[in-house]
Amino acid sequence: MSTATTVPRPSYLDALEPVLTGIIAPAAGEIDRTAAYPQAALDALAQAGLLGLVSAKEVGGLGEGIRAATLLVERIARHCASTALVVCMHYAAAAVIEAHGPRAVREAIAAGRAVTTLAFSEAGSRSHFWAPVSTATASGDSVRLDARKSWITAAGKADLYVWSSCPLTAEGMSTIWLVPANAEGLRVTAPFDGLGLRGNYSSPVTADGVIVSQDAMLGEDGKGFDIMMNSVLPYFQFMSAGCCLGMMEAATTKAAAHVGGTTLEHIGQSLADLPTVRAYVARMRIKTDMVRALLLDGLDALENGRADAILRVLEVKAAAGEMSTEVTDLAMRVSGGAAFRKEVGVERHFRDARAATVMAPTTDALYDFIGKAACGLPLFG
Ligand SMILES: Cc1cc2nc3c(=O)[nH]c(=O)nc-3n(C[C@H](O)[C@H](O)[C@H](O)COP(=O)(O)OP(=O)(O)OC[C@H]3O[C@@H](n4cnc5c(N)ncnc54)[C@H](O)[C@@H]3O)c2cc1C
């Protein structure tokens, strides 16, 4: 069985353990049933210092990076993918603020006093998050933001949005802003009522004349695309893959336990005694371990500046998203009607796992990018 992420166990995973067993795991079913935001988990993660995981030590954080964020999100997703996604978006946005934000905000994030998230997707450009159509307009010394954001995880719950718009005046595809979630003119327009990830609060948000200062700009005007590609994409791709991996691991373990412990009394055999069922469980195990291997190799490529690092960044979410839908589907299949009736605990993973393939960059967009890279074509254009 896979132990690559558990030996030796880093201290941040030790710190996570009591939060997992005491709060995240026990609350997961209820969060799924009621679509409640995982506030208790966020509070406990803040208390444990883990919301500052990717914040620099100089501002009070743990000074970790993509590997730690990915492994931590993976652990959370084994129990509650809604919580895992909220944490994933927090780290992805925190990484941008770490690189470009003011020190006071970085300190607040490091101390667990501020939760942040990404506000990129828009009703106009849909999953093409790199091409916002929303506007930023100079308004005296300030800037006016108008937008129809289509999805923001933790909408109305996070404290800060890392926000994209068309550039103010510069050439380029976008500019990134730091927008307080309580800014006047921001409105969450619908509650989240999704198939899965039911507690992640990914709602549409409109901005009508939201005024921010010029200082709210993160990075340079017109350079948003560079921030998206260099800061956000590697974090998000690996953490999203980690989220998928956590769900795959949970579904595989639960399904294997179910078939091993469920008896066909009339023939004196367990479901696991059936070769067909065993073969399906084997496929689940292999696919889960393949994703783990790709993910760990991708982290190695990134950390060592390998030539294939960008390809791995693109591949890891595509592979994990696709395989998590396959593995959770197999978990439903081998666990039979018992799973359909929610007795095995894999049905939530099956629903939650559907999201990654349609979260941007979507799997099909990634296939297009990876195909272009493999064929030597430019990724954009
Ligand atoms: C649970 C959840 C949480 C989210 N949280 C956030 C968040 O915090 N912040 C944020 O900014 N966004 C977030 N999103 C939005 C997400 O990143 C996508 O923008 C969104 O899911 C796209 O949905 P859509 O209906 O607009 O897709 P569409 O863009 O309409 O896509 C429809 C289909 O067309 C395909 N397609 C589109 N473009 C291409 C292409 N170039 N090549 C091949 N196929 C293509 C897609 O793969 C898809 O199959 C979240 C989404 C979900 C599901």
Structural features, described:
The strands form three sheets. This protein has a four-stranded mixed beta sheet with strand order 1-4-5-8, with helices on one face. The protein has a four-stranded antiparallel beta sheet with strand order 2-3-7-6, with no helix packed on it. The chain has a two-stranded antiparallel ribbon with strand order 9-10. The mean pLDDT is 97. Helix 1 (11-34) packs antiparallel against helix 2 and helix 3 packs antiparallel against helix 4 (81-100). The chain contains eleven helices and ten strands. It is of the alpha+beta class. The protein has helices at residues 11-34, 39-47, 66-79, 81-100, 103-110, 224-261, 275-303, 309-340, 347-352, 355-358, 363-374; strands at residues 116-119, 135-139, 142-152, 160-165, 175-180, 186-188, 203-213, 217-218, 263-264, 269-270. Bound molecules: flavin-adenine dinucleotide. Flavin-adenine dinucleotide binds next to strand 1, strand 3, helix 10 and helix 11.
